[in-house]
């Protein structure tokens, strides 16, 4: 075989190039290069830099010096930080449980043999497709302290006398942002779980029914165990996104009233960008990492279990 | 990993033993409540954006759920008296450019990990997955620092270069799944026929992975269209803002909210992705569930 390359006098550069391209490792390295450069420069490096910034007193426009754990000591005595930790926990737990419950219910409804099933599936995903900030603006208007449509409906039904102050009262504000988050998260959970439900053969359910299982037993003894692996993964993602949520809070309350709805992410932004304390903001962001690792490990074992259930790869 | 295919079974199964009234109560009623709650904010957004100002807050004389004499004033205001068209343009450029870059990098990375199987490819695949789990809200502070030092602060380039950090892991992960489903034999026979890896990739694998490319592409486009925290942090001047940031920071002034303009801003900003979505519903679903399932 003569390829055009062998006809030309063998120059060292093309031949080295050829060797690189023809070896598996070399070509693999070459193909990985663009992605690797991006991820190393803008993901790995910032991640490390963030940890480093957490140990410094850097401010916007001034490089800081190493101050050890001072930021963390400062945060440990900061009631606002602990309030944000509490809020993040509350927000994540309540919203995730609700998203899971309602999402699973919706998935079960959609898994039935319905007319216009695809149509329903399509419109249910809408809250998830629309930019969060823009749908949060709609919620802001729905939660308006004077002209809220919810207040108006409840008032015309005679259930309440005065408009509800949705975002002005600490607990009202917490429940309101949780409701908005659940609204936005249900489609993701429902559609992902629906995909999982569709892999479960109907015959299993039918066999159980013939053996005399009630609908509830069929759900808990057949559907749920088969769905567990996918639930683990979906909920890990959901917890992850909820825990690190920023947009909804930023639009609806900016952490107010009086820090009552600050999450760790919004507090970190608040301290770092408008406040200028990059070091302290980075420390708050770093404090989120242990929780994220816990969620990732959870996901990892969920995946492992799935592999084990399917037998060896 | 064995691929689980959805069971295509449209027979009513045991559902046929259910009576109609019971089905209405347990299925259709909850379903309609879900749909109503999930869609109401959009209806409210749309109806507000065409309401004249005097009807907006006058619930006594006008029904809040409907509009008499709809107006396009808010949209006209938005398009001709604010920087909205400019934000739209910025958002389009940033979304298209970062999607394109991410797809390009991801195709190579996914092919290398899935098919070249170089030493360490499994670990690389796992690392890519972990990178997907790193949330922007812990990266934005150091990234702002870097962007500032590189000298691209307050420019579209800052967004174009940082969005791939969450797009590449996602696209690579998704494309790995698609490449895995292409039979090895096709590539092997091409190799035997003397094709180079480049030819295999461009002539065999990519044409077969077109659905995957579409899924990854529109999904990445939507993600960058919706991105907020980086755009909020890295951009300060009005003419470089994207739609989500521009609408929130420039249209909200003081204590008097111009709800009409705000809602039309939100509506117009959502329309492009919704239209894209309506054409590619199945691709969206497959990319969303694909990322979770693989």
From TrEMBL, chain A:
It is found in: Cell membrane. It comes from the Bacteria. It is a multi-pass membrane protein. Residues 85-301 form the ABC transmembrane type-1 domain. Pfam families: BPD_transp_1 (PF00528). The keyword Disulfide bond does not apply. Its main location: membrane. One of its GO terms (cellular component) is plasma membrane. The chain crosses the membrane at residues 26-45, 89-110, 122-143, 149-168, 224-243, 282-303. Keywords: Cell membrane, Membrane, Transmembrane, Transmembrane helix, Transport. GO terms for biological process: transmembrane transport. InterPro entries: MetI-like, MetI-like_sf. Belongs to the binding-protein-dependent transport system permease family. This is Carbohydrate ABC transporter membrane protein 1, CUT1 family. The lineage of its organism: Bacteria, Pseudomonadati, Pseudomonadota, Alphaproteobacteria, Rhodobacterales.
Automatic annotation (TrEMBL), chain B:
It is found in: Cell membrane. It comes from the Bacteria. CDD domains: TM_PBP2 (cd06261). GO terms for biological process: transmembrane transport. One of its GO terms (cellular component) is plasma membrane. Keywords: Cell membrane, Membrane, Transmembrane, Transmembrane helix, Transport. Residues 88-280 form the ABC transmembrane type-1 domain. InterPro entries: BP-dep_ABC_trans_perm, MetI-like, MetI-like_sf. The chain crosses the membrane at residues 25-46, 87-113, 125-151, 157-179, 200-223, 259-285. It is a multi-pass membrane protein. Belongs to the binding-protein-dependent transport system permease family. This is Carbohydrate ABC transporter membrane protein 2, CUT1 family. The lineage of its organism: Bacteria, Pseudomonadati, Pseudomonadota, Alphaproteobacteria, Rhodobacterales.
């Amino acid at each position: 075989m003569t390829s055009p390359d062998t006809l030309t006098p063998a120059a060292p550069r093309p031949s080295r190039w050829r060797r690189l391209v023809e070896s598996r490792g070399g070509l693999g390295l070459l193909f990985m290069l663009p992605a690797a450069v991006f991820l190393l420069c803008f993901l790995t490096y910032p991640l490390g830099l963030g940890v480093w910034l957490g140990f410094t007193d850097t401010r916007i426009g001034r490089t800081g010096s190493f101050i050890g754990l001072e930021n963390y000591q400062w945060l440990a005595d900061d009631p606002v930080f602990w309030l944000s930790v509490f809020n993040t926990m509350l927000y994540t737990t309540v919203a995730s449980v609700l998203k899971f419950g309602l999402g699973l219910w919706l998935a079960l409804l959609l898994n039935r043999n319905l007319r216009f099933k695809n149509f329903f599936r399509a419109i249910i995903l809408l809250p998830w497709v629309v930019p969060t900030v823009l749908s949060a603006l709609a919620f802001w208007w729905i939660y308006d302290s004077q002209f809220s449509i919810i207040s108006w409906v409840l008032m015309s039904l005679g259930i309440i006398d005065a408009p509800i102050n949705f975002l002005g009262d600490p607990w009202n504000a917490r429940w309101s942002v949780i409701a908005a988050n659940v609204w936005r998260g249900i489609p993701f959970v429902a559609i992902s779980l629906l995909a999982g439900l569709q892999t479960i053969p109907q015959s299993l359910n039918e066999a159980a029914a013939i053996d005399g299982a009630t609908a509830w037993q069929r759900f808990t003894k057949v559907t749920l165990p088969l769905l567990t692996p996918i639930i683990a993964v979906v909920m890990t993602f959901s917890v992850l996104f909820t825990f690190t949520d920023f947009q909804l809070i930023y639009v609806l309350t900016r952490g107010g009233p009086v820090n009552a709805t600050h999450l760790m992410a919004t507090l970190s932004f608040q301290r770092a960008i408008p406040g200028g304390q990059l070091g302290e903001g980075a420390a708050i962001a770093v404090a989120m990492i242990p929780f994220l690792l816990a969620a990732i490990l959870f996901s990892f074992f969920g995946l492992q279990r799935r592999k084990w259930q399917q037998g060896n790869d | 990993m064995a691929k689980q295919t959805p069971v295509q079974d449209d027979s009513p199964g045991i559902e046929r033993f259910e009576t109609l009234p019971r089905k209405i109560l347990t299925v259709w009623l909850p379903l309609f409540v879900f749909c109503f709650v999930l869609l109401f904010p959009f209806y409210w957004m749309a109806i507000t954006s065409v309401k004249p100002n005097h009807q907006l807050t006058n619930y006594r004389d006008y029904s809040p759920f409907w509009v008499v004499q709809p107006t396009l004033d808010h949209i006209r205001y938005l398009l001709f008296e604010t920087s909205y068209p400019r934000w739209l343009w910025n958002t389009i450029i940033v979304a298209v450019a970062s999607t394109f870059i991410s797809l390009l990098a991801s195709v190579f990375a996914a092919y290398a990990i899935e098919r070249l199987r170089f030493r360490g490819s499994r670990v690389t695949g796992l690392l890519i997955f972990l990178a997907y789990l790193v949330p922007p809200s812990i990266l934005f502070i150091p990234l702002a620092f870097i962007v500032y030092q590189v000298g691209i602060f307050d420019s579209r380039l800052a967004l174009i270069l940082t969005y791939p950090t969450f797009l590449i892991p996602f696209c690579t992960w998704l494309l790995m799944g698609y490449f895995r489903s292409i039979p090895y034999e096709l590539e092997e026979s091409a190799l035997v026929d003397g094709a180079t890896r480049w030819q295999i990739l461009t002539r065999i694998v990519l044409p077969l992975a077109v659905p995957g490319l579409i899924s990854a592409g529109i999904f990445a486009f939507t993600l960058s269209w919706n991105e907020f925290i980086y755009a909020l942090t890295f951009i300060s001047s009005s003419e470089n803002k994207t739609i989500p940031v521009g609408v929130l920071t420039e249209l909200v002034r003081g204590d008097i909210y111009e709800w009409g303009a705000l809602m039309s801003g939100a509506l117009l900003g959502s329309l492009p992705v919704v239209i894209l979505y309506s054409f590619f519903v199945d691709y969206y679903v497959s990319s969303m569930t694909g990322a979770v399932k693989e």
